[in-house]
Every structure is written in C-alpha cells, then in structure tokens.
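Students often ask why we bother predicting the structure of a whole assembly rather than each chain alone. The short answer is interfaces. A chain on its own may look different once its partners are present, and contacts between molecules only exist in the joint model. In this exercise we take two input lines together and write out one structure for the complete complex. Read the inputs first and try to guess which parts will touch.
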Amino acid sequence: MTIRTVLACWGLLLAGLPTLVFALEDISCHMPDTVYGATYEISQQSADESPVVTETLHLLRSEHRVLHVHPQAHTTDMWERNSRGGVHYSRFFDEQQRGIEFYQAVAAEPSSELEWDQVYQMVPSAVMSPASRRAAQQQAPDCAAVETYAYQVEGDEYTLDWLPAQRLVLRLTLARGQSRMSWHLLNVSSEPESVARAMQDRASYVVIDYADLGDQESDPFFRSLHHGAQHP
Amino acid sequence: MKTFAKAVGMSALVVIAAACDSNNNNNSDFGGALVVDPPTEPAPVPAPAPVTMLSAADLQTNVSSSWFVDAADRLEARDPARLLAERGSARNVILFVGDGMGVSTVTAARIFAGQMAGESGEEGYLSFGEFPYAGLVKTYNVDAQTPDSAGTMTAMISGLKTDVGVIGVDADIERGDCSTVAGNEVATYLELAEIAGLATGIISTARVTHATPAATYAKSADRNWEDVSDMPSAAVNGGCEDIASQLVNLEANLEARVPGADVDGIDVVLGGGRRHFLPKDPAFNTADAVSSVEGDRTDGRDLTAEWQQQYPQGVYVIDRAGFESVDTSSISKLLGLFNESHMQYEADRENDIAGEPSLSEMTAAAIDVLDNNDQGFFLMVESGRIDHAHHAGNAHGALVDTVELSRAVAAAMAATDPQETLILVTADHGHVMTLGGYPKRGNPILGKVVVTGATGPALAADGMPYTTLAYTNGLGFRDMGDETDADAAYSLPPFSGRVDLSSIDTEASGYHQETLVPLGSETHSGEDVGLYANGPGAHLVSGTSEQSVIFHIMDYATDLLARADAAI
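Now the answer. The structure tokens for the assembled complex follow.
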C-alpha cells in the first residue's frame, strides 16, 4: 500500500470544496522558522451546489513522524519513516481509543520521498517547479516568503500558496469541474513536542495490525471495523 | 501424580494409560503408579476400557465434557492392540500447524505446486499428502461454531477444547478477566516435554507471541496480551503476565508451578514479533525496525537481553545473515526474532531488507539444534501467514505459504528418522475460500474457469468470466498487479460482487478474489480440517476426531505424561 493510496482512500482528495477567498494574510508575518504543527480548515463544495462542508485538519510533524488529526471524524492518521526510508502507517480511532497499523513489506520504494512529501507537507515538492511558479512575494521584511504555483494533475487544477522556508501549505485549492476543495492555514505551532504529546495521548490505545483484524471478533469496535464500518 | 497434575494445572489433562487394566483402580487414581513399561511381547487386547483415564478429583472441568470423553473413547477404539504395543515408541514429535489451512487450501496448493513445476497439478501431492495416515478434525471452540486459533491450538496442545480467544486455560475462563486465570490453567505438551527433559522448540512465521505459538507456553485470558502495553491495567495490577514475558520466563514459571521440575526453557524460538520483546524506546530499535519506535513494551524491559542473560550460551539473531551464521550442530539455545511484527509472506520474503529465513530453513535449523538432546525433542512449526493471506482475500499468498509449509514438512522428514519421529500436520481451522466451477484438467488454479473442451473463459449468467477460487466473504476483488504483500488490500474498503475479469490477470500475485459478503477481513470457516500423520503413533489418526485428540496422540506416542511424572 502506498501513501498515495492511503491518502486517496482516506479523504485528502475529497470531491470538491469552495475556493476560499483568502488573502495571503498576516499569518505569513507570524511564522516561526520551523513549524511543528498547523491547523487547516478544509472546505469542500460539490458541483451540485449543496452546502459547503468544512472540517478541520491538525497537521503535526517531526522529522520522521507525521500525524493528521481529523477532529470531526475522530480519527488520526500517522506515518513514520524509519532509518531505511520505509514508511509505516497507522490509523487511530480517537473516540474508541483503538488503532490499526499496517506493516509495509517494502522498506523503500522509489517513490517514497515523493509520498513522504505528501504526508509531511501535503503536496509533493515536485509540483513546485519553475514551470508552475506564478508569483513570489513577501508582505514585509519580517514576513515569510510566499510562492504561488498553479499546476494540473490528471485534469484537476491546483493553486498553491506555499511557504518554502517552512515547507508548509498556506493555501491549496483544487478545482475539479465545478467542484472545489481547499485547505486554508489557520494557525501554526512552533512547539517541537507537538507530535510527542499527541502520541502520548494515544499511548494507551489498543492497536492491532491489519493482518490481525480478522481475529478480533471479541472487540466490539474491531468487529465493527471488520464488518465494514469506518473502513478506510 | 496427583500432586504433579495439580501443580502443572492439569485440570484437563488426560493420562493415557492404555497399558493398564481397566479394573486397576490405580489407573484412575493419580496417587498410584500410572505407567507400565511397554511390554516386550505382544500384549493381549485389553477389554474395552478407557484409553484415557481421568481423575474426577483432578480433572473436574473435563470429566463432564462430552467431547473429551468421546474423543478418548474413539482413540481407544481405533487399534487397541497397537496402542498398547507401541505406546511411547516415538522419540520426537513435530507438530506442523498450517494456520487457516483448510481442505480447499490444501487442494488448491497441491494443484498450484504442481503447476509451478510445469505439470497439470491435480495429480501431484504435497509432502504430507503422502503420509500413510490421515483423518479429519473438528475445530469448533467451546463457545464458537467457527473457531479462532487461540482456542484451537489450546485444544491441540493441551488436550481440551476451550473458549475462543484464550490461551492455555480452560473454558471456565472469562476472556479478558485476569482474575479468572488462576486455577484454570492447563498444562501443555511443550511444558510436559520440558519437564520430561526433551528439547523443545517453536517456530512461527507469525509473531511468536501470536495465538498458535503462544498456546504452547502461555496462560492468558486474552490472546491479545502479547506484551504489557496490550493489557488493561486491571490485568497488570491483578498479576497477570504478558505472553512475551511468559515465553522468556517459562523456565522459572514452570518450575514454580511444578515443584520438583527442573526445566531449561524453550530451546529454539524462531519467528516474528520483536516489538513485544523490546522497550518502547527508539534506543532499542534494531537495524530491521519498521516503526520509528520498534518496541511496544511500556515496562522498560528488554526481553531479548533478559533471555540472553538467562541463557548466555544461547544465540539471538534478528536477520538472515545472523541465522545463517549459527552453528546449529553445537548450540543448545536459539532465539530468532526476524521481524518487528509477523514475518513476511513467503511470496514477499525477498522484499525484506534485512532478510528472513524461510519456514523450511527454520525447520531444518531447529531440528539440527534440538536433536542435540539425546532425550528427544518436541517441535511445533506454524505457517502463520496462510491465515493472513486468506483474511486479506489473497489466495495466491495463501497458496505460496502452504507450498512452503509442504517444503518445511519435507525438510523435517529428511532430517529425522520416521521410525522414531511422529510428524503431524494439521490446521487450526479453515477459511471460506472455495474451489469450484468446472475448470478443465490443468486449468491454472488461480485462473478463470475454462471448461473441458473450451479454450476461452466460461461466462457466468452475467456474461462475465469467473475464477476457480473465490471467497464467501471478505474484502473482495482487488487487482493489485504484481503486489506480493497481501495486506495491501486493506487500503481499500470491502467490495462485494462481480467484476468484469476479461482483461484482468487473475493469476497475478496481487489479484484478490471476488467475494459475496463484504467484510473488512475474510473469515475463518467452521468445517473440519485435515490431520496427516507419519511415524510412531500415526496409526491413531483416522476418521473424524475432536481437535483435542491431537494432544492424546502425541502423548501416547511419546508416553510423555509418564516420563514427565517420572522426572519430578
């Protein structure tokens, strides 16, 4: 299972969100050198003009561990990179205090760096090419530099406002036909212990391997997972 | 004996006393002499008498169990004269368990193996298919029609059926309740072998703390208590010990439980599951770590170090290179933990960075170590990932692992004398994989059905091709190409029903068969499984037996209970 697959399955490519009218505001002027945590508002609007759906994503990251906390869904996805470059993925179900992890057999796939980018910074570095670069600006000397990119992936149009020094998305917009989806940075954390604290919060969870899911009939939650509920 | 029986927690052990007269009260009284040396001349056929003698005082739990009595009666009825004459004639016992290796898996693997060798497939045999004796085994647990590995392995290794999900305890246990363990522990064949002075070993391609291997040495109210971090605080505070710790502490625990016993711990342990032996601290990561923090233990204990301290002469290895460097002819203790969690699927093994030995290589090495003990040995070998591949709905992975199990059995046959070694091959339960349609002879077992006389795939009523192998339930169809890790299937939600397979290579390693009932994981099945036997005592395998009979057959073959009794 690749990270890309996981991302696709777990909702980062949701179908459609509205483009946020979002000035490159002053958050770029209050940016620490190193960002260990970021909170995004994710908005989506589908083509049928149904109400905009918004949710929150907390991105917590250290050099080798990244968590995506989805408070509305009560789930947390975690990726860990080992010393060989392999990636280990787990999903926590925060309400039920359960977890399930996937042991990857292939330690270092050729695309793992690209995939790690998608987890760590939510966009692959490869999209930030000179060809896709549209602008670069810095609101004030004390503000962080912001680069703007526009690119297409499989027909979907992306617009990215990027904080290169922080390796952080300021705003990302995806347009697929009439559907829109966007990620909008609300705040950041310069607290290096963010990841450790989040892990400590989940230290007492009951965590199993995917391979063992079929043997967990006695646990009501895992049984519900086994029967298809909340499956990734 | 009464003391011994109590001491080892033998609330459910049987004492096979076939050599004893049914009128001899001593036989039903553990205070008397239990064992009569095998006669040197053909003995008269005994009158119909229980081959298995139970003490009402010591075995209250099981005396009233109808399956237990029935199993004993059936064992006795099979060949009482030979039973008497050949009791204790086996020096060694090797028990192979293909986890989830139901009959359809055996059949499909046999065909698969033949086809991999360029043959039609159906006419071939897996190694254990050529054993002279075979029978069927009923697998249900006391509280479950379709069982799990914990209850079934406890039945095989301790001689009694118990509940689903519990390890080394009888059905009086309440799963997950530590306080119900005390007094309900049962002795295992491995423990008796230890007491009797035999060398012992366990091998698993799953974690060595997983249900099947754990049932050989541990007592646990929950199969998931593989390390201390898996246990609720009530269980830890209640004095229950996690499974990994019990593995390392077997010597001390068994000697404490059985006064007078002098054991030396399990001699060979090979498999996966390092995470349950290491502290949750990156400082203890091995070079083979997958997670950023490999260990799970929250009590700070490094059980690999404790094992090494306990057995300074022992060799601990974590990868193929270390495994290959072991001088198996001279050492007496070997611990190999080759993966943080389960070992790789055989189909995926070459992708392991640090390298893992195969099941057949581990089996051969284990025998080489164990046969250094002149008292004989007991070895349990589990092919643990047949089960996992099926759970993931990937027949290819299950068949490749089954074929490797067949190789491991062949390796054991080559390394032992059939006159002195009883080899049993069985499964703990089956899976809901079916083998059907009307494919022609030699049709690829993983392929689409092509009927006799035809050259192209047959079409179902929906106008689409279908495969010979399919699952009743589970994750369902996936076309993952040449993926060899069956667990990759969990990245997608369950999908039931039909797919147009016309342009899909269903023989590819990453193909996952269609299913009817969508579930997050394919399930075990409840039908009987095969039991194949070769060597002294093998003739007791026939007909249909309860799973717990396997213990009695092994005990009969080695006269183990008497030997254990004599040793203390």
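Check your guess against this: The first helix of chain B runs from residue 2 to 7.
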